[in-house]
Amino acid sequence: MVGRGSVNPNSRKLYAKNTAQECSHLDITYCEENIKAVYHELFDEALERHNAKQIRADRKIEDYYEKIRSGKQEKPFHEIILQVGNKGNMSADSDEKRLAAVLDEYMRGFQERNPSLQVFLAFLHMDESIPHMDIDFIPFITGSKQGWTQRYL
To answer: How many CA atoms lie within 13 A of 130 on its CB side?
Structure first.
């Protein structure tokens, strides 16, 4: 994903023009967590340690999520979109069960294969002409010898 990103179309809080709302019942939600809550879970301890070391008040960070969200260097999250084939050879009309099984298997092992990518939203969308999966995640590291011991990449 390029840009700041928006979670609303993925969670179907807003429907895009190319969405068949009558097929939305076929969609699968794997994970739908509040991004702010995930940031607090991942980074509050490191934020406390950082702030405890600061002598100057202006170097303390009040809310790490807001710092990242409003900053110009980082994005609050990253997204990957996965699909198999194209509209001609793997449309929702033609092979939705086989396609759903492939994407479902990929998603079920995603967090285990990528332990430094904290997934907070993941959806399989079967309500568009080409079924696909949206996975939104926050990258982080642990055990860093420099800087925060758990921090955003």
So the answer is: 12
The rounded distance, in Å, linking the Cα atoms of 41 and 35 is: 10
Amino acid at 25: H
CA pair distance 60, 41, nearest whole angstrom: 19
- Is 145's pLDDT higher than 80? no
Q: Which residues contact 153 (CB under 8 A, 6 or more apart)?
A: 116, 139, 140, 141
Domain boundaries, the chain: 21-33+75-152
d(CA 61, CA 53): 11
C-beta of residue 27 within 8 angstroms of C-beta of residue 127: yes
Residue 29 token pair: 């939600």
In sequence order, which residues have a C-beta less than 8 Å from that of residue 56 and are 6 or more positions away? none
Judged against a pLDDT cut of 50, whether residue 3 lies above it is answered with: no
